[in-house]
Amino acid sequence: MNESIPCPICARSNAVLTYSNINGFIAFECPCCGKCRSMNIDLQLNQSERLALSLFIATHQTGNWDPKFGPMVKTHDDAIAMIQGIEPPRNAIEQMNAVLNAVGELAPNFGQRTHAYNDFEWATFSMSVDPSVMQTVFRELMRLSYLNVESLQTNSGLKYTASLTAEGWERIGNTKKDTASKTAFVAMWFDKELDPIWNDAFKPVLSDLGWKPERIDKEHFTNRIDDEILRRINNCGLLIADFTGARHGVYFEAGYALGQGKPVIWTCNESWRTKMQTEYIPNGTNDPSIKEQGWMDTLHFDTKTYPHLTWSDAADLKQKLEDRLSALGLDLRGK
To answer: Does residue 126 share a domain with residue 19?
Structure first.
């Protein structure tokens, strides 16, 4: 089976259909995106979403899936979840930064060169809408002494290999510092009851005030989750810790952020009730004491003295969080 179809991911190149069945499952290989599989040939994505998803698929050809078929994108919602935090460049400067970051990811050692890629592949790595502009971008980055580029004539056409200069590595470092300082890491309970709190309070308020909100279960990574949490806290400029649910991990992440000198905003629900164990008996055999209480009642005494924003619902938290961030000078709009 080698039928050619428009790529369901990027929609700018034809993909080779490598497998399909009567249940609607398809597997295909695109010269831009690489191998992928889906249950839906029409994912209903806009152009920016396609660019971001194409980058994700191209850079995640290995992982927790069958390498014969590549990543699985079943539905539109799957696609949106994959591209959380991936934003296509909005102007020429961001496009050049995207190319530099791509080279840094593909050739992470000083002096190392990337494999040779064609215009379409480079456009995928840098989330460029038009592959024909890549040569212009390369020329400008070489003029600025950020990049060394060599062209290679291959049997499949012209390809380019690139390496970062010392100035290019410095540029990436400065760009990442600027981005990291505007990232807000949110530590919270991932229970579905709190989805409105993330979707209608934390995420929109932080975005509106110029922050890039991150929640670890919404991000994609290949290393261990505990290492990734520490890395993201190290790189963030702000941590939000919500203690609804008395999650031990939230205590740890808030404490680690304090140790790293990061500003921490403390929040907790004030109205929901739950049944909790209130008496602990070392090596005891009696049944634990259970009683109904609010989540504020469960706060540990070591953190109770911090100024918690108490909230009743998403609308309440949204207003209080915006007021607190503004009062603390953490409104980044225009900065």
So the answer is: no
